[in-house]
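Lab notebook: predicted structure, single chain.

Context: the supervisor wants predicted structures on file for every construct in the current expression panel, including those that have not yet been purified. This is the next one on the list. No modifications to the sequence; it matches the entry in the shared construct table.
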Amino acid sequence: MNAEVKDIKKVIPITPVEFEPDGELVSLYAAHEKIYPRSVKGVFSNWRWIMVWVTQIIFYGLPWVEWGQRQAVLFDLGVRRFYIFGLVLYPQDFIYLTGMLIIAALSLFLFTAVAGRLWCGYACPQTVYTEIFLWFEKLVEGDRAARIRRDEGSMTVEKVGRKAAKHFLWIAFSLWTGFTFVGYFAPIRDLGSDIISNNMSAWGYFWVFFYGFATYGNAGFMREQVCKHMCPYARFQSVMFDKDTLIVTYDAERGEPRGARSKKADPTKLNLGACVDCSLCVQVCPTGIDIRKGLQYECIGCGACADVCDTVMDKVGYARGLVKYSTENAMTNKWSQQQTLRHVFRPRILAYTGILLAIVLAIMVSLATRTPFKVDIVRDRGVMARVVDAGKTENVYRLQVMNATESGQRYRFSVSGLPGLALTSEDTVSVQSTEARTVPMRIQLPFEGASVGSHEIQITIESLDSPGKLVEKTTFLVPQQ
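Prediction complete. Output recorded below exactly as produced.
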């Protein structure tokens, strides 16, 4: 067996097999290979850890932030209200969710067109949690070489103890992650109190353990298999690439032919390129690929291979950049870094950026100018239309007024649209903060005010305590006498 492959991966046989007509035994599936990524330091590694800290401080810290007398960010499905700092959204505000999904999709297209799988390499939860779990693994079991020796060695008390300690840390971290996730959908302080007092609902326990189990399984065991076989992004990313997309590349013209040599040797006399064939670029790759074979769909663009290659180049005294972020056109035309960056900001990128900024601006303006209350008008089916005293026609409606602010509000109603139309029920109502109230409304019309049939009228709802006015249309029925 090749010594490099043996050092990098541990081959585990797979059972599904078939027989060819000549009797040769062949496997139906490629053998699963466990990957032991080597730790690496460098510019891109530092950025990955910065993103780990930023994303996790936000994820774990945000549910504990208070806004007024409540949790700052809370998606309360029970009462169907979403709180995002000072913003209160209802199911009727679904358009904003659609806008956020469009922004996320366009951002993904933009980042991918600029620099490939930046999201995958630096901010994807699968990448972030895998990085954290690998840190736990290194803390308990040692570096890569020690982990390989321990896994290939016989079962010992030390091995069992270290494995148990590692899994204990993984499970504890996963359960905390599940608890935090559920804390976005139920007040996290109440959730913590319920767990301590064992009063949490069965569904609460289910979701904490479900999300914890998903984190434990994906980041602890499946790892690169999620990126390679489960994530659809890896399959269609090539559609968003072009020859000016920044990707992790190996300079084959400079690096080949590769080969080992002493530090003092002159590679030109040995007819060798800059690559010393140390295989470290493969050992640090979280998906186990060899970047020297070209870009592969498994590559998540994390730049670990570039970091370790620069370290090796420094040690042997060669120029950095044998493995680097570059573009296909830059490698072909031997562009400088400045030329490469100028071509990165091409019309396609400017179009994505312009559309993205326009949508973000439109949503921000819409949120800033939205009326801070909602009104639904429903005709009372029990009393469609009737003739009352003095020969007037009366229609009865039910108004549901939803106060989307966090302070009590008073609202005043008025009607228009037909001569003599009048509101005979209460014209002012008070609604508590973030609450909804159903209000019966009676509207009368003199008999001579309209002909028999259906007529459009307007109901105006105006807030007396804050700016905002809504004009809702409905119909007024005039029955035959």
